[in-house]
Write a structure and sequence with these properties.
The complex is a heterodimer of chains A (322) and B (327).
Chain A (H helix, E strand, L loop, with lengths): L5 E5 L4 H13 L4 E6 L11 E4 L7 H12 L3 E4 L10 H22 L3 E7 L12 E2 L12 H19 L4 E7 L1 E3 L6 H6 L3 E5 L5 E2 L1 E3 H13 L4 E5 L5 E2 H7 L3 E5 L1 H13 L18 E2 L2 H7 L6 H11 L7
Parallel strand pairs in A: 1-2, 1-4, 2-3, 4-5, 5-7, 6-15, 7-12, 8-11, 9-14
Antiparallel strand pairs in A: 10-13
Helix pairs in contact in A: 1-6, 2-3, 3-4
Chain B lengths: L20 H17 L13 H14 L16 H18 L3 E3 L11 E4 L7 H13 L6 E4 L1 H4 L5 H6 L3 E2 L2 H9 L4 E3 L4 H4 L16 H9 L3 E7 L1 H4 L4 E3 H7 L4 E3 L19 E4 L16 H25 L6
Classes of the chains: A alpha/beta (322), B alpha/beta (327).
Chain lengths: 322, 327
């Protein structure tokens, strides 16, 4: 199968789902788009056939399968993941792990030919013994301190098992690194747009970002064309964290790790939007993902890490002019 | 310089017709005499201290911890050309005057291109890596080997940013292969942590060279191995014994007790100014080996042992040549 005629997208409300719909409507008018989410997104294009599905319900799998069979979906893009970590761990697990399992089972029942799943390079885990560049073969070790990452790691391992049992379905996993751009917003963007940015004292890791357009382009290419396998979706180049904060004209609050971890715990429990303490582990060691495989498959990214960051900084007007 | 008196400008400069010629002469003489009798006093310049600027500067220094000199443009492993250029005089000083390093066998080193330098590891902090890569760089301007550093060191706070900017890379096979494939030379210390933790009485006796990872990388990437023996560096941090209990508390692999550390506190971490001799041996060529040699475990372990003995010979030559540790 090369280009699918009907594409079902779960998680229309998420950035990736929403942007993919916009892109497909603009560039591939012959494709019928089916949207699934727990509530109808604001200003949904009338060309998208929308179905309300709550993936946290116990019977979500049969409901999704019903929709997929009814619409005769040929490809499923699974982007129904949270953009923010939540202290509600049970709900998080229900949505991310069990919800993904429901989608997979529904795909098997509806005999979908292609399944594209959005993932993250955060799943490799911030380990001190990571090599500087992690390829797709590197094991997903996750992060014991972060529930959302552990859930996503479970999703990927379930998906690997599922793929072994369903060889007829092409499965593409896209591991995005941190996405930046004019409109993308998640907990990482929120962390970096604070006035006073806390950081670990004595560490200056290398950062790697992908621009939202490059990310959506990779997702679109993986949906429309045949690219089975796992890919890191990253931008070219790396920048030290201190340089990134200096470009944005941020005030840096360097704190020793024990104090920072303790200080980060309570605000994140109170859902103030501050990153959970485990997040700072990702700002500690020198490792990024190796994007060569993704670049070969989806083409050279338009924006480098620095350009992705600059576009984020300039649209948020963070730069102080001196 | 304004000395308070207005002797420099003539009194009659603006109204030349007022004074007669002899009066002017007398005035000139008087002026000269005043100048010789009362030499211009230097008034100490009063500078206002801009406290806010000072505080801001200190804040910035603390928050970036000395890394404000970097350019921000780093290569993919975090090395910064500007930092390198700025630290070059410091490295040169250490090289020429602190350790008075002698370099032998530089003709064995190619002008450019990927190669794998293998040396004996010594001391807690990677001064040896810094010095060897500097030594090669000053003789071969196109070649600056990236030195590989142990995991625990490259993840140590305050040390990590500096090491990365100066060209240190966490030592693991993936990094080594990637660097060689991108055309860089690397400097590895296959003794690893066992080498760094050698106590004084075991100095210059090489430990096991891992499980042959170095040879395997060389065979897979088809680059020559160049052995290096460093003499002197192992006395720069003479470890008398290792103290485990406090090390476990801090999270270090071991806490070395040297004659000065922890007795003198952080000052004791300064290496001693011993005399170093860096000897570069003959490259071990792998061109005659079959391409599938990387899967031959016996060959790898034999080559590994050969490499080890070659470096041991280099070290022993250096040891027998010197008269004392200090010169």
């Amino acid at each position: 199968m090369n280009s699918p005629g009907v594409i079902a997208i779960t998680g229309l409300g998420s950035y990736l789902g929403r942007s993919l719909v916009r892109r497909l409507l603009q560039r591939s008018p012959n494709i019928r788009i089916v949207g699934l989410d727990c509530r109808r997104p604001f200003r949904l294009d009338p060309l998208v056939r929308f179905h309300t599905v709550d993936l946290t319900e116990p019977t979500a799998d049969s409901r999704v399968a019903e929709v997929l069979a009814e619409e005769r979906a040929e490809a499923v893009v699974h982007t129904a993941f949270r953009s923010e970590p939540t202290p509600n761990l049970e709900m998080d697990h229900e949505l991310e792990t069990i919800g993904s399992l429901h989608v997979m089972n529904a795909c098997a029942a509806a005999k979908v030919k292609r399944l594209v799943v959005a993932s993250s390079t955060m799943l490799y885990g911030p380990w001190p013994d990571n090599p500087n560049f992690l390829t797709e073969q590197h094991p997903l070790r996750g992060h014991p301190g972060s529930h959302s990452v552990s859930n996503r790691v479970q999703v990927e391992s379930l998906l690997a098992q599922w793929r072994a049992h369903h060889p007829d379905t092409e499965v593409t996993v896209l591991r995005f690194c941190w996405i930046f751009g004019p409109t993308y917003w998640d907990h990482v963007a929120r962390y970096f747009s604070r006035i006073l940015v806390p950081k670990l004292m004595g560490y200056d890791p290398l950062m790697q970002f992908v621009h939202e357009e490059d990310g959506v382009h990779a997702l679109e290419t993986a949906t429309l064309h045949q690219h089975p396998g796992v890919f890191n979706v990253v931008g070219r180049g790396v920048l030290p964290l201190s340089t990134i904060l200096r470009i944005a004209g941020k005030r840096i609050l360097s704190m020793p790790s024990p104090i920072l971890y303790r200080m980060a715990y309570y605000p994140s429990q109170g859902q103030t939007g501050d990153p959970p303490e485990g997040f700072y582990d990702y700002l500690r060691y020198l490792w990024v993902a190796d994007g060569q495989r993704g670049w070969n498959a989806f083409g050279e990214p338009v924006y480098t890490t620095r350009e992705a960051w600059m576009s984020f900084v300039s649209t948020r007007r963070m730069r102080r002019y001196r | 310089m304004n000395d308070g008196t207005d002797l420099e400008t003539p009194i009659d400069a603006e109204r030349p017709d007022v004074l007669s010629a002899d009066l002017r002469e007398a005035l000139d003489g008087l002026r000269g005499e005043i100048r010789t009798r009362f030499p211009a006093r230097q008034r100490a310049p009063v500078e206002k201290v801009d406290w806010m600027a000072l505080i801001r500067k200190i804040q910035r220094r603390v928050s970036t911890l000395g890394m404000s000199e970097r350019s921000g443009e780093v290569d993919e492993f975090g090395m910064d050309e500007i930092v390198l250029r700025r630290t070059r005089p410091v490295l040169e000083l250490l090289y020429e005057h602190y350790w008075r390093i002698e370099l032998h066998g530089i003709d064995q080193v190619p002008d450019a291109g990927p190669c794998l330098f293998v040396a004996n590891r010594s001391g807690l902090l990677p001064y040896d890596g810094l010095m060897v890569s500097h030594a090669i760089w000053r003789m071969r301007s196109k070649l600056r080997p990236r030195f590989m550093v142990a995991d625990w060191l490259i993840t140590l706070p305050f040390v990590q940013p500096y090491l990365a900017r100066l060209g240190g890379v966490r030592s693991c096979r993936e990094n080594a292969e990637r660097l060689i494939r991108s055309g860089e030379a690397i400097l590895v210390f296959p003794e690893g942590q066992k080498g760094a933790a050698k106590v004084f009485r075991e100095r210059y006796r090489l430990k096991r060279f891992g499980r042959g990872g170095v040879v395997r990388v060389a065979l897979e990437t088809r680059v020559p191995i160049i052995p290096i023996g460093i003499v002197g560096a192992e006395e720069a941090h003479p470890i008398l014994f290792k103290w485990d209990t406090p090390a476990r508390v801090v999270g270090l692999p071991f806490l070395p007790v040297t004659p000065t550390f922890p007795l003198l506190g952080p000052l004791g971490l300064l290496p001693l100014p011993t005399k170093w001799v860096i000897r570069i041996g003959e490259p071990i060529s792998i061109d005659h080996l079959a391409p599938d040699a990387a899967s031959d475990e016996l060959l790898i372990s034999r080559m590994n042992e050969e490499l080890r003995s070659q470096i041991q010979v280099l070290i022993d030559t250096g040891l027998s040549d010197r008269s004392s540790v200090w010169d």
